[in-house]
Specification:
The protein is α+β, with helices and mostly antiparallel strands. The protein contains two helices and four strands, in the order E-H-E-E-H-E. The chain has a four-stranded antiparallel β-sheet with strand order 2-3-1-4, covered by helices on one side. Strand 2 and strand 3 form a beta hairpin. The longest helix has 12 residues. The chain starts with a strand and ends with a strand. The chain binds dioxo(di-mu-sulfide)dimolybdenum. The site of dioxo(di-mu-sulfide)dimolybdenum (9UX) has 5 residues, from helix 1.
Length: 72
């Protein structure tokens, strides 16, 4: 089983932010990064290993504000 999370992310402004968010998401166990753009990201997760809250927390820790926009 795998979840697809679409995140909306406040505070991103440039490709450096894209890189920072990509690195932060990649470092979370159970997360596979599909795409990151300025202002949003799409990841797939193993829900047995990681919760949506843990995913948004990883982004918030580096200074952005992430919300789950869709969880399918
Ligand atoms: Mo760009 Mo983002 O200069 O955290 S890296 S605004």
């Amino acid at each position: 089983m795998e979840d697809t999370l679409k995140l909306s992310i406040e505070g991103m402004h440039c490709e450096g932010c894209v890189r920072r968010v990509t690195n932060a998401l990649t470092a979370v166990e159970g997360v596979h990064v599909e795409s990151v753009q300025v202002g949003s990201a799409t990841v797939t997760t193993d829900p047995a290993r990681v919760t949506p809250e843990q995913v948004t927390a990883a982004v918030d820790r580096i200074g952005f504000t992430a919300h789950v926009a869709a969880n399918n």
